[in-house]
Amino acid sequence: MSEQRHTPDRITELGPDDVFVFGSNARGAHLAGAARTAVERFGAVPGRGHGLQGRSYAIDSMSGLPALEREAAAFVAFAREHPELTFWLTRVGTGIAGHDERRVAALFADAPPNVVRPRGW
């Protein structure tokens, strides 16, 4: 039986085909938390609040739950289209954005196997 991988609480480095997935805002003001880490370490671009940027992928989690639902669906589709990449999903939307963790986790329940989720998701 293989052990399931989980996104660690803190990511400081990535492998060559790894992508850091973080919660953002629509303006792409990546000033704190995982968003700041994405800028400092993984190529996220200030001013871009959505999608693939360098070795990171921004999900707008600050514009309300309907927006987060759309962003999560777009991300899951993107991950399916890129099985050659491994996506390390952080607990998007559950910190400063304030969304319920169970509700957010459910948005990623159908993510493909190349998406590594936080423990409990």
From TrEMBL:
| Annotated source species | Kocuria rosea
Give the taxonomic lineage as stored in the record. Answer: Bacteria, Bacillati, Actinomycetota, Actinomycetes, Micrococcales
User: Protein name, please?
Assistant: Uncharacterized protein
